[in-house]
Fold this sequence. Notes:
Keywords: Metal-binding, Zinc, Zinc-finger
Distance between the termini: 25 Å
Low-confidence stretches: none
Shape: globular
Pfam families: zf-CHY
Number of strands: 5
Organism: Corynebacterium lemuris
Domain CHY-type: 6-84
Order of helices and strands: EEEHEEHH
Protein name: CHY zinc finger protein
Number of domains: 1
Helix content: 10-25%
Amino acid sequence: MIQGIDVDEQGRCAHYRGPRDVVGNRCATCGQYWACHVCHHELADHPFGRMPLSAPASVLCGACGHTMDYPEYSAAASCPNCAHLFSPGCELHAPIYFEL
């Protein structure tokens, strides 16, 4: 369900393999969830389309499949459904994935 390079069962890719790197971000252009912007750049034939902040299902927890909009995701240190911790470093990339 999460696209990318060498993606494991929880959505970790070749570029981000930490224990908390389990988030897939949805591209507004193709509608697919991607492990990271680098994977998208290397595999897709279009730029990563940033999602509106209120768009439902713009973030996917790779641990359980729970989907969130940006406000729910950005307010959580872990998945609200399964409690798997999210990487705090992901907020640095938010402008790549969302219309901030």
